[in-house]
Predict the structure.
Amino acid sequence: MHDPTRSVDLRRVSAGGASEDKDVVAVEEPLEIRVEGAPVAVTMRTPGDDLDLVAGFLFTEGVIDGFDDVRAMQHVDDPADPQGNTVDVVLAEGVPAARRTRADRSLFASSSCGVCGKASLDRIFVRTPPLARTWDPSPEVLTALPDRLRAAQAVFSETGGLHAAGLFSRSGELELLREDVGRHNAVDKVIGARLRADRIPIDDCILLVSGRAGFEIVQKALVARIGVLAAVGAPSSLAVELARAGGQRLVGFLRGAGYNEY
């Protein structure tokens, strides 16, 4: 597996002049996802936890209902370009044909964009019913989470250039963290890690993301049955609409001693 960081040369310029130096940057490389040899998606990601990313992606896009739908999953190389940037998935016997046919380029090209309007939201709830709210974290628990997430972001500490997604217990303890150059990938990685550990649904955790909360983040969290989604940044209008319709508690601008509930 490739290193998630890379050293680069640079020229530092300030009012006092310029000097040659080096810096550490986050690696961004394409990952091609294949299902039974057929390419279905390419995502730009930070190498690391690729199998979690693929499992979470296929789960949140409806290709698999659980990890028992996967017979095998591994990195494969194109002999002409052996870079370790391709993962192939073989589905288990008995996976319905309707879900197998979801594994095509047309699905994934629009999986996280171009969805709007009540009809689209209604279609989401055909597969993902609204949540039954059973608990709410206290303000004291929520406001402590960003510092705990930041303290655990090892690659961000080196580069300053990665998003993070963390799963926290109801009492606010960090249980799982993943980093990636793409905010959606970080979420897929934490969901995929729980999926591969046979710990779905994730109805016992708070999901915190280091950036904003877009529609696709809310959708992925609802598929995983995450009832509390918090973001350091802002939500979008469609994210708020989907969270409300799905019975999910959505928190934004979680900074310092306060936050907004949507």
Notes: Residues 139-261 form a domain with the Cytidine Deaminase; domain 2 fold (CATH 3.40.140.10). The longest helix spans residues 183-196.
